[in-house]
Amino acid sequence: MACAESVVSIAVDFGTAYSGYCFKFRKSKQIRMPKWGLEIGYDTLKTPTCILFDENKQFLNFGYDAIETYNRHKSKEEAKRLYLFDNFKMEALMISAKNGKKMRAIKVFSESLKFMKDHALDKIREHTAGMEYSACEATWVLTVPAIWSPAAKQFMREAAVQAGLIRDFDHERLIVALEPEAASVWCKHYCAPDQNMNMTFSCFYLGGTIDITVHEVMEGGRLKELHKVSGNNMGGQTVDKNFREFLRKTLTEDVFDEFEEKYPTELYRLMCDFSVCKRSGSNGMGSQWCSMGQWINTTELNFRFYRTESKTVQYVDEEGVEEFGLIRVELPTAKKSREQSVRLKIKFGFTEMMATITDRKGNKTDAKLDFMTESLVL
């Protein structure tokens, strides 16, 4: 049986550390995003990516509720029988819970998505005077890290089918979107809709990964990828891990382990408060979420040069690496050209470094070289 036309779009951000969703009705411009944890003293736009199963592997709770339920039984024998998964990643077919036992990854992910689906449909009913909507009346958007493989993306689509977001024959109702590309679209259409943007640079800093992408804004608002999306698995959880190690060394291992064993709820709240401070870039008393963007009418590109005596260096911020100059490449303004395409040719080995720029029409000009930096050795 064919589903009705989509009347609402629901976007699910299923992250390693935190997850959430927002929804928008087709005929409305307003995007709604629920708050989480209000009943236990929190007020966040996402909830921890934690899911709890009973000893028979039946779903119990997700998010803050899963952690609160588990911590209430932490000192009891019952806790050893519960399956708690937190900050889980799709790295294998089986995932280990807190008690060391394993469960199929597809079940953990699909039950998590099912919770998000049910929560979203319940929230939509609250905003429509009790009107019932089914999952097949929605278009679903599921964001995934850019560094995920095609197999990982297929896994999430199959998990969405098992969770009931879509039917097996109705795949067009599920959009699997790369997180940095979704952020780039948001910057273009929502952060500054009236800005004359020529380029968007998105650095998506997540719990598990960091994804970076650069797009050129074309005529009509379309986006053209200037560089392949890249990233790594050094997300916010790396900071959390180092903070825990800092506490362990400061308090000594014995004290920290005793605190973790006897007061798991307090430790969890401490880590949540730290996460809030980390995201806000302040002492945690201000906004819990911050955004940063820059819109550039690009007229030049800067190529920076670094030097080192090391033969194994990989990054410019490593010890022994110093910047010693840059080359400025002037570009035509957006009014003169939408392409802004040039070729840079650099000649080494002469008394001076030489650089020449050639545009698409074959016109050549010398680049501006600036090596009068403080690190320059005369």
UniProtKB/TrEMBL annotation:
Claim: Nucleotide-binding is one of the keywords in the record: yes
Signal peptide start and end residues: none
Domain of life: Eukaryota
GO terms assigned for molecular function: ATP binding; ATP-dependent protein folding chaperone
Keyword vocabulary terms for this entry: ATP-binding, Nucleotide-binding
Membership in a protein family: Belongs to the heat shock protein 70 family.
Name of the featured protein: Heat shock protein family A (Hsp70) member 12A.2
Native source species: Astyanax mexicanus
Lineage of the species this protein comes from: Eukaryota, Metazoa, Chordata, Craniata, Vertebrata
